[in-house]
Amino acid sequence: MHDQAEKTFKWVGSRPVRPDGVDKVTGAARFAADFSLPGMLYGRILRSPHAHARIRGIDTSKAEALPGVKAVATAADFPEMPSVYAGPFRLEANFAHISRNIMAREKALYEGHTVAAVAASSAKLAAQALELIEVDYEVLPHVIDVVEAMQPGAPLLHEDLITRGIEPAPTEPSNVAKYVEFGVGDVAQGFAQADQIVEMEFTTKPVHQGYIEPHACLASYDQDGQARIWCSSQGHFTVRAATAKLVGMKQADLTVTEAEVGGAFGGKTVVYLEPVALVLARKSGRPVKLAMNRQEVFRASGPTSGSAMKVKLGASADGTITAAEASFMFQAGAFPGSPMVNACMVAFTRYDLANTKSWGYDVVVNRPKAAAYRAPGSPIATYAVESTLDELARKLEIDPLELRLKNAARNGSTTVFDLTFTNIGYAETVEAMIAHPDYQAPLAENQGRGVASGYWFNAGGESSATMHVNDDGTVVVATGSPDLSGTRTSLAMMAAETLGIDYHDVRIKVADTANVGFTFLSGGSRVTLATGLAVVNTANEVIAELCRRAALMWDVDPDGVTWEDGQAKPAGSNVGDFEPLTLAQIAAAKATTGGPIGGRASVNADCSGPGVATVMCDVEVDPETGKVTILRAIAAQDVGRAIHPGYVEGQIHGGVVQGIGWALNEEYVYDAEGHLENPSFLDYRMPVASDLPMIEAVLVEVTNPLHPYGVKGVGEANIVPTMAAVANAVRDATGVRLTDLPMSPPRVLAALEAAAEA
């Protein structure tokens, strides 16, 4: 779909082969665990077996005495960090908490919390050394559930944690780290005007991002104080900044090299191993490799939050939503920082509502610290809101998509966080789904259809790029954005399109932190937009230089040269009758026109467009087992302009699959002692190919006028409505509303049996 007559492009919108594809399918690509150095040591981490315990003492002497052990690290090897919150309101961080998460100090706050680390000449010796470390624990009561953690008398994780966001500030500590509230209009008046009101409560469980590659890194520390880290992350500049601060060194003395990334989805935006590996390398004088196994990934790296939520919606008989309110209680894990603020902001944002209110609580519990997961906070909130909206549509006897379309946010609509939409394509995604022939396809017994819509902010932010023109006319572009999803291809396509040259003559490199300007994380659906803008600006700078060089070769004024289709041409007949000069011809003459040809650009992009998607899902529910089978999944998403349609479709497929897993099977299961019972892919049930149908992606292209190629960002909006669409389909198939995720067979069967008894 196109919202306007589109310019014809040569590369943008095509589907070239990705440049890293051969290495990845042949096994030649180097991931973090593939790096090694001469004299390298093997690191291992000692983790707490308790969900909550005071650390009264650690004796590492026996481990240090073991031959082959070269270094042992504890919290004493890291500088104490002051407790200060910094950064944007919804993304703020506190280095006192980050430091205590990578290495426990006063207390171990979850099973798997790092307590000590060793580096030895072999992995076997490192494992033996861990067994020799003696930790004196005082086991304390723990709390796992978010609602229980908020109750008076609940075990306190942090004796100094005072709730922020409440005035006047509380005088007593609690597990509630922060309270926020957003709203517009008068919800009480809106509910008074409603002909129908639906109020519901929901819970979700923590789920892991499920990346295939565990966390791993290699660190070296030279005698002159220079250090290097090779790691798999979503942002090696973030790794550099955090690690340097946590170990007490200057950023300029630390270079971080990005490995290939074997999946991330938000879970590799933070540091776990890198500061520990660097401290071990500094203490031992030898390079140190650290890698998690799968159990450590589950027990010690951040899942997203579990939640408890309440939603209330009111509407007039014609379907106009008159009021909406929601409350969100999110598990932050052991330290503050759940995506609860995001949830409050996006809960109703795809709708144009006069009266809304949302409020939330960030609550610490004895679980691993929560980390980002694909549109963090939005899928959870959307599951609750879109499920409630589905029930409202039933009460009003209005088609659920028509209800959404009637209340859709459009250009000119505003949000609770003071954004006025100028190019939102939400209504277009709903219209695309209404028009889809499968929306009216017949269903059989025990089958149901569900729809839902979702919103994600999409990000811009800081990115840098450099470009160098080679003598043969090929171009090398370096950026600081780790490639999680084929972005090297989309960036090369935009560079080739701007320069007017062949895509295959552009090579994109992900440079280390010493060889390109600062670039923020690959996350928030920002890379193709923000780093793409930096690449386009760099290409335009190179074009200006190419025109200047052509002017020298022709001995004319630079204003007399224009660039078209990859060639320098006279700007008009009055300039002279010159044959066009190709990029390769100009590059070959560089020695006589001024030397190397290149450019650089850094941007702080504020041109992002909103991410919106509408998902339809058909299911079949087995009434005897409770098993839910996905029959059909269709996702219509406003993608701005699809630079590489194949990769955009892949992003949509991936988000929908993850949403299906979240809805039906995935959850952390803890026993009474706070021990995780399913820390493996055998027991943590993610969808596999046999669980899924073919997923159809409908690309709705409402282009972004603020970006040179209309980009909006596509990585996250697709997951946001999927859980709700599945839940609404299960409701349609069974007549029973499940309000707790996951909707696993035992839960579905229990709900069916309870409904039958009632």
3D structure, described in words:
There is one protein chain. With 758 residues, this protein is of the alpha+beta class. Among the domains are: 377-458 and 609-757, Aldehyde Oxidoreductase, domain 4 (2-Layer Sandwich), CATH 3.30.365.10; 461-605, 2-Layer Sandwich (Aldehyde Oxidoreductase, domain 4), CATH 3.30.365. The two termini are 47 Å apart. Strand 15 (307-315) and strand 16 form a beta hairpin. The model is unreliable at 1-5 (pLDDT under 50). The protein has 20 helices and 28 strands. It is globular and about 90 Å long. The strands form seven sheets. A seven-stranded mixed β-sheet has the order 3-7-1-14-11-12-13, sandwiched between helices. Strands 9-17-16-15-10 form a five-stranded mixed β-sheet. The protein has a four-stranded mixed β-sheet with strand order 18-26-27-28. The longest helix is centred in the last third of the chain and has 28 residues, at 527-554. The chain is 28% helix and 24% strand.
SSE blueprint and pairings:
Elements: H1 21-26, E1 41-47, E2 53-59, H2 61-65, E3 69-73, E4 85-86, E5 93-94, H3 95-102, E6 107-108, E7 114-120, H4 123-132, E8 134-139, H5 146-149, E9 176-184, H6 187-192, E10 196-204, E11 216-221, E12 227-231, H7 236-247, E13 254-258, H8 274-284, E14 288-291, H9 294-300, E15 307-315, E16 321-333, H10 340-346, E17 356-364, H11 378-396, H12 400-406, H13 426-435, E18 447-456, E19 461-469, E20 475-479, H14 487-499, E21 506-510, H15 527-554, E22 561-564, E23 567-570, E24 581-582, H16 583-588, H17 590-593, E25 597-605, E26 611-621, E27 628-638, H18 645-664, E28 695-700, H19 722-734, H20 745-757
Parallel strand pairs: 1-14, 12-13, 16-17, 20-21, 27-28
Antiparallel strand pairs: 1-7, 2-6, 2-8, 3-7, 4-5, 9-17, 10-15, 11-12, 11-14, 15-16, 18-26, 19-20, 19-25, 22-23, 23-24, 26-27
Helix pairs in contact: 7-8, 10-11, 11-19, 12-13, 14-15, 18-19
